[in-house]
Amino acid sequence: MPYICLYESYKKRTQLLTYLITLFQSFQNMKFYKFYFYIFFVCLINCTAIGQVSKTAKARTIVTTDGELDDVDSFIRLLLYSNEFKLEGLIISSSQWHYKGDGKGTKFTSEMEMTKKMYGERIELRWPGEQWIYDLVDAYGKVYTNLVRHSADFPKPMDLKNQIRIGNIDFEGEMTKDTEGSDFIKAKLLDEDMTPLYLQVWGGTNTIARALKSIEDEYKNTPQWNKIYKKVCQKAIIYAILDQDATYKKYIEPSWKDIKVYYNSNQFWCFAYFWKRSVPTELHPYLEGKFMGEVINNHGPLLKMYYSYGDGNPPKGEIDDIYSSMEKAKKNQWGSFGQYDFISEGDSPAFLHLVDVGLNNLDNPQDGGWGGRLVQSTMTPSRWEDGKAAADFNPFTKKKDEAFAQARWIPAIQNDFAARADWCIKDFKNANHAPKVSVKKGNFIIVKAGQEIKLKIKISDPDGNKVKYFGWCYMDVSTSFLETINTDFIKNQISVKIPNSAKVGDKLHLIIEVSDDGIPSLTRYQRVVFTVK
Questions:
Q1: What DSSP element (H or E) covers 197?
Q2: What tens digit of pLDDT does each residue of 161-189 get?
Q3: Quick check: pTM over 0.85?
């Protein structure tokens, strides 16, 4: 039937509307007038909805990376999640840990105290080259035909390759000249798409800083400046893993004070070199070789390039390889590790924040999600940070923990990664896919103190797996607590009781957690926020 094919044939809303109107006007058989009008009306509504969905469906993002070992591993996971957001740029940059040098023998000393003491004066530092990112995209291309069996939204390998640009890489913090990378970011910041653009900082902020400086140089003394400044600040959201050069503090913060910044300096350690110290011991098995070896081995050419302890694969550019041999892995400065133990993906929280698993954290970083939890700064309103203000209660230690807002999701995140690895080699029927869950009353409910609420939930699983679910109160982001949480599995219903002591304005966060019994078990959520009136 022709009207079923309209969505595929006319992706743009305006084209579809024009086609429908023309189709409607062409009807000659008045006996079927009402029927055709009904079809026209339904399609008109649906195409309007399509137009609305396209605006908010996926987050736009650009990745800047210095190519460190953990960047490589983060990049591999990023590729396996590239169907979940709209990748618009892959930019190689530098950092305090990695820079290429200018090829002229120019000597450089870090502005950052740690690397200044560690490395002193250098002409280059631990530079892994630029080919690694092309090689990983090529490896992605070899598993792409299998990945699209699981989601048609995975980007084409050539489209990803066309997004790669070289940014400011000569030295740590170099931002004096325009580069292909900075020009690319500049063009995206100035384009007409006003949806948020998440700028992921896996190394230094210097290439982003150069893009912003180029915009300032072009427009600062023109009548357009106020409009341009407002446009960029409205659009750009920087998700930074630490300060890995001085360009944010020296230039971006004072010159672009209204740009939103999500700053992760503590929670990312759960996925970085210090993970044994940051992740509760009870969760270590999800990062150890017995689990990780199953994920990375025998899952195709992309996962084969994933760095892990004792894998015999020396990281490119490293001065001292303390990872690839088991002898060094057991006596590592970060701890004692076994074969195939997780090394580091310190930058993965930056894109895990963009993955919609039902926690509604994208525009609400203070509420927490797979990318951690960040709280708005009292000093700088445009900045969200982790640290003490974002500490969650750790049930294993019975104490507040500055990393647990990230660590709490590790089992679900790692099982999801294992499933994505299967997608590289298995067809849809023989792999697992996450369940879907929704709440019939919606996710934001006005309540009164003492009120009892019954929530009807709808659950489905694309593989027909059995699911289990329960509700829990996210106390660390709530201003009151849910007195009781009961589950009625026959009616697919969760009942909660708002405490009598709840005050007007209190917010209570209920997390409905749904897991299937597939292998590996996959989890999705719905967050329901109750506001007391």
A1: strand 197-201
A2: 999 999 999 999 999 999 999 999 999 99
A3: yes
